[in-house]
Amino acid sequence: MSTLNLQSVTKQRAVSLIKRIGLFLLILISQIVHAHHPAYQLTEAEKDYLKKLGPVTMCVDPDWAPLEFIDQKGNYSGIAADLINLMSERTGIEFQLIPTANWDESLLKSQRDECMILACLNQTEERNKWLLFTNTYFTDHNVLITREEHNEITRPSQMSGKTIALPSGTSIEERIRKKFPTLKIVLYKSEEEAFKAVSDRKADMTVRSLTMAAYHIKSQGWFNLKIAGELPGFSNELKIGVSQSHPQLRTILNKAILTLDESDVRNAINNHVTIKVVDNFNYAPIIQLSIVFIVLISIGFIWNYQLRQLNLRLKLGQKELINLSEQQEKEIAHRKQIEEKLRLSEQQLSNLVSNLPGFVYRCYDDPCYTMQLISEGCISITGYQPSDFINNRTIAFCELILPEEMPEIQRKWDIATNQHSHFEHEYRIRNARGAIRWIWERGYVTYDELTKQKILEGFITDITDRKIAESELRNREDKLRELNAQKDKFFSIIAHDLRSPFTAIVGFSELLAQRLTTKDYDGIEEYVDMILKSSKKTLDLLMNLLEWARSQTGRISFNPEYFELKELVDETAFVLGNMAGHKSITLNKELATNIVVYADRQMLSTILRNLVSNAVKFTPPGGTVTIKAARTEHTVYIQVSDTGIGISANRIERLFRIDSNETTLGTNEEEGTGLGLVLCKEFTDRHGGTLHVESEPGTGSVFTLSLPLRL
Prior knowledge:
The chain is α+β, with helices and mostly antiparallel strands.
């Protein structure tokens, strides 16, 4: 009995020893292979990158058992978790779990870049928008799950019109919608709810991985469910999704995936799905010891062979690396040459643009003329920095353009677009200081190759100085025309108005001399009266002509002083009273004695004399001429009104212009010089005052002179 026990113990020890030796050899082989395989090793640069990066933050599906889930203690568990842990142990990568309530929240955090990786998921077109994917580290076939009473599904056409239950947010949903548009898809919050919907007859089927199906059917006791078929091309190629902001991390994780083999995946599956792979051993000591020796010898040969192969690969790799390094150095040198040429070209272009008397631009053809590019020349013209205009950050260029200019600008751009011609226009803008500037713009229409949006490109320069010069030139032309008109009027007066009265004086003087010689005194008084009238008219003409000539040459000095207005009105009424009396015209004065003006006495006397003289001249016998004066706080008003023939509206506009003024006969055919009102206007302007006319034909006229109380 004791011998049997000893043999039993010996056998057990031998078996245990064999197992330990075998396990040791497997671990040793694995470490040797992994330690000498260059693909598994991290470079110093990659190690430094991980050190600076810190823990790799990770989001997972908290309810995707047995692939991955968060257990009751908050730990990351499942097949994927076991494989992730192996990668961490073998590469030294530190993973940090970011807890989430569900898969949708994990996707959202990944999209917001709140975690660096998603640990286990399929690659889809939608996910490619924000993720980079590693190589596949676990493949799990998708199968169709139905109830027991359903037939096997061998063709996709058998699925037409069926209802399929799927968890929300999964890649299989996206693929099923594209591949089988006739299926009615019902989404559920979790895997368990999807399986339960099929079991409870709320759906005809679901599509899940084989591992998932085995786990849930067994754990939940849904024995009325079965695997009815497999969907070709719908395998779960499970990968790690890496944020696009960490491309180097994907390379490192691909190296970590290379450390996994089929036994690692099989063990991870067996840990969670309870499908155990059991190895049957013959525990006979002699056979096992023989096997051990054979294995040891084989391993030695294999190890030496692999070492030779690895050394050969290493040498080839080193040569290839040297060749690649030399090629890369050449490419870097060539790229630097190109970059230097590009830099010099850009510098030359920048210098050229900066020396232009304006600025170049590139903008969208939108209502704001949104700038994409604008050179620094805009600073001196607009007062704004180029960055202020880019994408309308501070101000849009359209806000500088005066509103009344916009319709014509848009019209010309439309013409340039339709006719494929250049745009060219002069218009006004208001710069940052509020000043109005004239600019000239020349541009053309192009299109953005990517967005196909219409683009405007061109050049703008400041032409304000040119516009001012043109305006001054026009003013000088106007002044020259006015001077020519004055010259023509001057010569007209000398040639006609001044000659006519002298001719009358000479003629009547000859007749008078003849009568005196023949002692014929009959009618002599009429000749004397004619000579007297012609002499007075000539004197008035000469006085106005001389005063006008002196005013045009600047020889009349302006000497304002304070004096009482009544004195000047009385003096004017006395001088012209005889003229009014001959026509039986009543000359009225309506003004107070205390109105004091600040004016040039001689100029104001000339103004009053001409206004009252004209009123008497164009008032019929028996009429009335009235002189009124009034004063406000800052202004003195002098008004000369009459009951004469009046002035038509079209003639009022030309009263004070020498180039269009014309003489009109008075009510007794009195002739005027045509200079009186022109002098009145010029002398009024010298005082800073205004001369206003109101008249109605057949009723009379009112001339109102306003003078500032103090200049």
